Amino acid sequence: MAIIRVLVVDDSKFMRTIISDILNSDPEIEVIGEACDGVEAIEKVKELKPDVVTMDVEMPRMDGLTAVSEIMKLQNPPAIVMLSALTQEGADATFEALKRGAVDFMPKPSGTVSPDLRKKGLELIEKIKNAAVAKVSIYKRVVKPKPKIKFVTPLGKLVVIGASTGGPPVVEEIMSSLPLSARFRVVIVQHMPKGFTSRFAKRLDSVSDYEVREAVDGDKLTGGVALVAPGDYHLVLEKSNGDITVRLNKDQPINGVRPSVEPTLISAARVDGPNTIAVILTGMGKDGQVGVQFVKKAGGKVIAQSKESCVVFGMPKRAIETGCVDVVADIPDIVNAILKLAGA
Fold first, then answer.
1. What are the positions of the active site (predicted)?
2. Considering 84, 164, 177, 267, which one is annotated as catalytic?
3. pTM strictly above 0.85
4. Beta-carbon contacts of residue 151 (< 8 Å; ≥ 6 apart)
């Protein structure tokens, strides 16, 4: 396997040293350069042509968001992984960076200067390796949301969306186009750490006609509501007196992640199988592979994002391999696929 060449961008020399030390400890990764701000980052990308860039958010001269936008204009841009503070501002900037073309992100545990990032070393290394195989060019194409469908007869189906690397902008596009009149009950399981899922839910709520919020244990899932699984918790569904109730737990990670979409899909199949539509989006790994089989066996439907539109064709690929996928769709066609399978 070829060595993954990385450029580290951070205005703190201390942080650049920590990040470089972590990455250089893996024999498959080599830090080939460092930059202290966005301006220098763009120059180094042009000069060194790295495979992956780790990008800080707040920097002098040019911030990380602006740098991401400029780097995405280059021919064959590198994959960018954002490193941001676990703050409201850091989360908002991260989601904007993902929309502009960054493929993944990782929070700094204790703020802008975060010496305990070393404790997350293995996670950072995994992020870099995943980013190295991501399809960056997908975000160079501006996908314009289709006009919202004004009215659809209430369908009341249960839609469970699972996503990982590259997922947030896709989930955002789906939720911005999903017609409220269909009264779907929506659960979103995006692989994301604690502290970011609440901001993700608020971002989705701002672009969607649905009421989108981070799930709380005991929530009732009703038509016109979308619940986001909170970071570090699995989300399962229970049925009682005709209501579907959310239960959160801290059971062991599944497929290396928590939340995992597996327990959500399996529980959805049990409580409302024939009315369940599973949507498996871009992401590394195999999360959802088991759950889609439960959904299909219970009489539900399954949609997988197309290889051509995925940043990482991992989760959808594994779902397709089960033989349970009804529709493979590009990003702009996913909402129409949901509506069609729901009987609209």
1. 164, 191, 287
2. 164
3. yes
4. 179, 181
